[in-house]
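Hey,
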Amino acid sequence: MGYFVSVDSGVKLYVEDINPFGKKTIVFLHGWPLNHRQFEYQFNVLPAWGYRCIGIDWRGFGKSDKPFEGYSFNRLADDVRAVVEALRLKDFALVGHSTGGAIAIRYMSRHHGFGVSKLVLVASAAPVGFSRETAQSFLEMAYNNRAKMMQKVIDGFFFQYITKEFSDWFMNMGMEAVSWSTIAIINTLRDETLYGDLSKIHVPSLIIHGIHDKVIPFAQAHELHQRIRNSTIVPFQFSGHGTFWEERNLFNELLRKFV
């Protein structure tokens, strides 16, 4: 089922809640510039295994409200806290992909991991996100031809072959965001780092990263592993940035075992 949760100053986030009576809850935070639907290939499987799966569209993305302000990691982490409180979630696994991983890390440090028993970081844009050069390239396209920017995202996202139909689906997902939120997150990824957050994570953590990732270098997964206590790193040998689809069977099985 899908519904909206108020988080701040009238801003409402869209939440997809699948199998609400599942034995264990997993909360998913999508990557930039996508939305909860990127986890379709988890939502098809994990609820059938008995899990409750909750996908949150960040403000500015997917079906959520799209205010002009509020795209810092602090605000986005506070939005997650508001959803957790509204749904009265506890003892849940938090899964964050790419920028969603950065938001998950900030949530763990800023809110002391409120309600979280396990953390899964997937190709996380942490401890740093975009270089100034990468950010400037994306910003130029976002201001002048956002569809071209989204195509560049797709071109560098996957290691494995994708069909035109799949590419079109991904394009449409990215274009559901608005331009100002897309731009604001580029600036956040350029300007904010998470080095100080990592030592504050105290739950068992699983780090998943494709060795062919062109978006966030695989070396950053090693850095997260070194800085996050009680963490395990699993390299995905046949994936780029899209481990959740490229090796979805392995991905889903890992989630099941870890959670």
